[in-house]
Amino acid sequence: MARIDAFLKLGQAQGCSDVHLAVGLPPLLRMHGELMPIKFRDLPESELESYIAEILTDNQAQKLRSGKDVDFSYMAPEVGRFRVNVYRKATGLGATLRFVPKDIPSLQKLGLPPVVEKLTQHHQGMVLVTGSTGTGKSTTLAAMIDSINTNSKANIISLEDPIEFIHPSKRSQVIQREVGTHVPSFAAGLRAALREDPDVILVGEMRDPETISMAMMAAETGHLVLGTLHTTGAIKTIDRIIDALPSDQREQVKSFLSQSLIGVISQILLRTPDGKNRRALVEVMVMNRAIAKLITSEQTHQLTTALQTGKDQGMQLMDQALLDAVVRKQVDPNEAFFHAVDKRPFVRHITDRSILPKEHLS
Fold it and tell me: What does the alpha-carbon distance between residue 323 and residue 325 come to, in Å, rounded to a whole number?
């Protein structure tokens, strides 16, 4: 057993989401959004190097020596599966190990609105799950893939970096490919996927113009494409895609979005009122004629109104999701206040008055 497994086992027992290891610090656990040190000595560089070396392959070790970050999945016996990122910084080596649950949660268990499952029932087009790092995008996508796998007879190809949740084939065939292991890049994986008779393609990260272009082509040619972007909010996601590609393709991109984008789910994670768990909350945009017209006419600043008035189609702004969760006592009202754009409706719900700006104090 690798020595690092002892930290992972302790973290799992405490219910943490991530274990952080860094030179000059004791191991840290992320507990419900906050970092907590464990009772252990500060890690010297030589000791941490030896811990990490025990779980690296020869190729991964060579990549790390060349100065590159290393991303991979690690299965710790008797503990579970982890997504690992190893990197170098000014003070030495560092590593983040994120626990990947064995069981894939359902969309219902995640508390996501019914419209999310409806988005997975399309046969062609693109659905985007967005949010900053650590907001549960991978878990939501895994639940969406599992819903398709359970309810449809489809050929599902996932491109991930690294592979996290393991999907056994149910009614569908699920082919999971890892960037750096099975394919050199997301774009290369997409090219190959289009020759493998896919119905559904998962793109773990649309991180560059080439990948975005390939994903768009796949969505336009009869496939359902699920992808992620590191954007916050549906409106910023639209702007990000338009701005990501060369200016001479702007009209083509707007046309694609208006015709082939099915919806955008933008996600955050908030602590529950007891502080013992976290809950996903989502902003949802579903494509309709009004939104398509706003995109093609470059009036994305008016999309806020379209989301507010699209409740019957399952749309909601993040502020609406936040306020509803606060009223239902599902999330910490102080955190909700922090994330809200219009903070006024949240003032009467907060429990820590010290976070109020002067204009809200009376």
Answer: 5
